[in-house]
Specification:
It is a single chain. Helix content is about 40%, strand content about 20%. It is α/β, with parallel strands linked by helices. The strands form two sheets. Strands 2-1-3-12-11-4-5-10-8-9 form a ten-stranded mixed sheet, with helices on both faces. Strands 6-7 form a two-stranded antiparallel ribbon. Helix 8 runs parallel beside helix 9. Bound molecules: adenosine-5'-triphosphate and magnesium ion. Adenosine-5'-triphosphate binds next to loops.
Length: about 375
């Protein structure tokens, strides 16, 4: 059988720098663990625009559809701000998400003990935190019709429509329950069923999928506003949170900051299973292209490396190897190795992007 395939799209800004460390780690897994991937690389975002005049070439799109997993660095940068909306670097990423139909966006908020002091919250609130937010990514109010700015009774009105079909809720609910089974077996679903019909349907469908297919998973429902409060008050009460596109956008950013730096946060976007049973999948750090530090070897590669760990776990059934990688990161942080973004006011000497990658490989 052929090796599993990975398409690497480093993108712009710090994307190529942090992805460079992931490439070293992929080689390490091949050399030391006999885990070999067929890796290919292509352009996305501004880097693709510079060569092809579009932020994602059709040929690259086809490679992404065929790959077992896509790893993306970051897209965008000030150089491209002047471009027409239709060819902006971000459109490349949106095209990938849309055409691969990646409806389930997984954003873990995991706090490494060594960084617990770094959160804006009290240490006991965040130390040991390990929760997962599952955000519906392809529907809801960001896509619903009608939408637009219209003229009505002599004034303008801005309209967006929150819209969910049963099947859209079912598939994202299933992905949350499946995840929970591999974790602490708990799902909390968040909506506003008290004031929104789409929320009533959401709650009904999640409950039905639970009762029919996942009765052994512990399920609770929470209004999203209360959820936001609970997330900050005592986040460890949660395991998996499943929610819609809009609430998920806000709640996952909120959860992210429980853990400290943007340089630490991975994500996965999953679609329907392919013929080989693996889900279509795109893995990327939460952070952007960070033009302010690009090209200086200062970027923290951990978010991108943790995204690869998610690929090991969710695309390649290598949960133990993913844990091994996460433990190496934990150890390096416990040893006090820090990139500049992880330095507190007391200062110290930061390591470079490659210094961090090398330390993780050594660990
Ligand atoms: P985007 O619009 O692409 O999401 P953004 O402006 O929201 O971009 P980032 O590009 O992620 O945000 O950068 C926000 C800030 O965080 C910047 O100051 C950047 O230097 C810092 N930052 C982001 N990622 C990292 C990283 N991996 N290591 C260190 N600092 C980072
Ligand atoms: Mg941003």
């Amino acid at each position: 059988m052929s090796n599993p395939s990975i398409l690497i799209l480093p993108g712009d800004g710090i994307g190529p720098e942090v992805m460079g460390e992931v490439k070293k780690i992929i080689s390490w897994f091949g050399d030391k663990r006999g885990l070999t991937f067929d890796v290919s690389e292509d352009l996305v975002g501004g880097a693709a625009y510079d060569v092809h005049g579009v932020p994602l070439a059709d040929e690259t799109m086809a490679k992404a559809q065929a790959a077992d997993a896509v790893l993306l660095g970051a897209v965008g940068g000030p150089k491209y701000d002047v471009l027409d909306f239709s060819v902006k670097p971000e459109r490349g990423l949106l095209r990938l998400r849309k055409e691969m139909d990646l409806f389930s966006n997984l954003r873990p908020a995991q706090c490494f003990d060594a960084l617990a002091d770094f959160s804006s919250l009290k240490k006991d609130v965040v130390a040991g935190l390990d929760i997962m937010i599952v955000r519906e990514l392809t529907s809801g109010v960001y896509f619903g019709e009608p939408r637009g700015i219209f003229e009505e009774n002599g004034e303008r009105v801005g309209i967006n429509t929150q819209r969910y079909t049963e099947s859209e809720v079912e598939r994202v609910a299933r992905s949350a329950f499946e995840l929970a089974k591999r974790r602490r077996n708990k799902v909390c679903s968040m909506e506003k069923a008290n004031v929104m019909e789409s929320g009533i349907l959401w709650r009904e469908v999640v409950q039905r999928v639970h009762d029919e297919e996942y009765p052994d998973v512990e399920l609770s429902h929470m209004y999203a506003d209360n959820g936001a409060m609970q997330l900050v008050r005592w986040p460890k009460q949660f395991d998996v949170i499943v929610t819609d596109n809009l609430f998920g956008d806000i709640l996952s950013d909120c959860a992210a900051m429980l853990t400290g730096s943007l340089g630490m946060l991975p994500s996965a976007s999953l679609g329907a299973p392919m013929e080989n049973g693996r889900p279509k999948a795109l893995y990327e750090p939460v952070h952007g292209s960070a033009p302010d530090i690009a090209g200086q070897g200062k970027a923290n590669p951990i978010a991108c490396i943790l995204s690869f760990a998610m690929a090991l776990r969710y695309s390649f059934d290598q949960g133990d190897e993913a844990t091994r990688l996460e433990q190496a990161i934990e150890k390096v942080l416990a040893d006090g190795v820090r990139t500049a973004d992880l330095m507190g006011p007391e200062g110290g000497t930061p390591v470079s992007t490659s210094g961090m990658g090398d330390a993780i490989i050594a660990a």
